[in-house]
Amino acid sequence: MAAGRARLSIVVPVHDEEAVLPEFQRRLAAVLDSLECDTEIVYVNDGSTDGSLAALQQFHRDDPRVGVVDLSRNFGKEIAMTAGLDCAAGDAVIVIDADLQDPPECIPEMVGAWRSGCDVVLMRRRSRRHEGWIKTATAAAFYRTIGRMSMVDIPENVGDFRLLSRRAVDALRRFPERSRFMKGLFAWIGFPALQIEYDRDGRYAGETKWSYWRLWNFALEGITSFSAAPLKLASYIGLATSAAAFLYGAWVIAKTLIIGDPVPGYPTLVTLVLFLGGLQLMALGIIGEYLARMFVEVKQRPLYLVQQHLAPRRAAVPQAGGDEASP
Ligand code: UDP
Ligand code: MG
Question: Which of 73, 80, 119, 155 is the S-S candidate for 46 at Cβ 3.0 to 4.6 Å?
Answer without folding.
Answer: 80
